[in-house]
Design brief:
The chain is 81% helix and 0% strand. The longest helix is centred in the C-terminal third of the chain and has 37 residues, at 163-199. With 257 residues, it is mainly alpha-helical. The chain has helices at 2-26, 38-51, 53-85, 87-100, 109-116, 120-144, 148-156, 163-199, 204-213, 217-249. The two termini are 12 Å apart. Helix 2 packs across helix 10, helix 3 (53-85) packs across helix 9 and helix 8 runs parallel beside helix 9. It has 10 helices and no strands.
Length: 257
């Protein structure tokens, strides 16, 4: 029933948004070339599906995203566990991380192109940078907030490293890590599109830029909608994986209804 209620709410909210969009078009305040109607945009999406353009660019973008995001997740969690556990080392590294973290991944793009060339690599590196820092900081925070009673119980049972880190600390810190994965997913998806707009010859970002250069605003909006829907689906997918891991580990967290 909860799933059905959520589905109904999603359909209603999206329908309201489409209605507001249609009302703006009907006011006539915007040229049709600047603000196409929902019907025109959905027709454009259907055409891209029929001619294969959408799936061709979609496969490229998903492959780039998964490569960069999964690499960032593995590196961020691994380094986060080690640095969070070794607080003295983290005290030296934290200032460097705080200097690098606010820098937009796009700012690194000239160097990334020089170092990695043109192609898939620059987009993957940008995604990695965008996702790495939220995951790293969330993991370090999670390790630092592990309840002391867990450590006492582990000591009573004689659990030593590396079992202590992976059997006690990691599951206890997982809710914080999951939050970082959520934040990183949104950031990585945004910068995937930005990276493809700047230096790629394929993918969803390139598709939008190509439509803009061709003055096809309906396809520009179609690309924007597709990116938004895919971002939503990716977020729900990682949420399902998170909940499954929590059930397996018996991690209790408060969820909002």
């Amino acid at each position: 029933m909860n799933i059905l209620k959520k589905a109904v709410k999603a359909v209603v909210s999206i329908s309201v948004l489409i209605l507001i969009w249609e009302l703006f078009v009907l006011t006539g305040r915007f040229e049709k070339s600047l603000l196409p109607s929902p019907a025109v945009v959905f027709t454009g999406i259907a055409k891209m599906i029929m001619d294969g353009t959408l799936f061709t660019n979609l496969k490229v973008s998903i492959a780039r995203f998964l490569a960069g995001y999964l690499a960032a997740a593995l590196a961020g969690v691994a380094f986060g566990l080690l640095l969070g556990w070794n607080k003295k080392v983290w005290a030296f590294i934290d200032p460097v991380i705080q200097v690098l973290r606010p820098i937009s991944p796009i700012a690194w793009f000239p160097f990334i192109v020089l170092w990695f060339g043109i192609g898939d690599a620059p987009a993957v590196v940008i995604i990695f940078i965008a996702a790495f820092f939220p995951i790293l900081l969330s993991t370090v925070s999670g390790v630092g907030n592990v309840d002391a009673i867990y450590m006492k119980v582990a000591d009573n049972f004689g659990i030593k490293q590396p079992g202590l880190l992976f059997k006690i600390v990691f599951p206890s810190a997982f809710p914080h890590i999951a939050n970082g994965l959520h934040l990183a997913l949104g950031s990585a998806w945004v910068f995937l599109v930005a990276g493809e707009m700047v230096g790629a010859q394929s993918g969803l970002g390139f598709m939008i830029i190509d439509a803009r250069n061709s003055l096809k605003s309906d396809l520009v909006l179609a690309g924007i909608i597709i990116i938004g829907v895919l971002g939503l689906l990716l977020d729900r997918l990682i949420r399902l994986l998170e909940n499954r891991i929590k059930r397996q580990w018996g991690v209790i967290s408060e969820e909002r209804n």
